[in-house]
Task: inverse folding
């Protein structure tokens, strides 16, 4: 059907739609940058120095727990000691990893002094 008197043609409508679409996209891109209402809230309240102080405090903490309780908490080490006691004649050729708890227990001066 040919266009009627005052109505725009289909090509004109498509061109108008394309231009309005481009204008809308450009305006929406500009509106995306909205300043924060409270920019100070985005800044971390913790200081890096306070983390160091916390680590220093945790390094000073010492715990005294009985050896049997420590062994029960580490199943691999408990199994290793049980096998070592049961099979005294067998020599263990393989090595076994021991957790950090056992090494801290052996470093504790009070614990080693009490065991001797």
Result:
């Amino acid at each position: 059907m040919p266009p009627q008197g005052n109505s725009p043609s289909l090509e004109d409508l498509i061109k108008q739609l394309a231009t309005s679409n481009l204008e809308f996209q450009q305006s929406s891109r500009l509106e995306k940058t909205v300043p924060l209402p409270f920019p100070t809230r985005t800044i971390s309240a913790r200081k890096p120095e306070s983390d160091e102080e916390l680590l220093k405090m945790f390094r000073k903490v010492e715990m005294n727990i009985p050896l049997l309780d420590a062994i029960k908490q580490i199943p691999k080490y408990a199994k290793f000691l049980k096998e070592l006691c049961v099979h005294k004649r067998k020599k263990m050729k393989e090595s076994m990893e021991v957790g950090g708890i056992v090494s801290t227990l052996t470093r504790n001066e009070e614990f080693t002094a009490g065991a001797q």
Remarks:
- The chain has a mean pLDDT of 71.
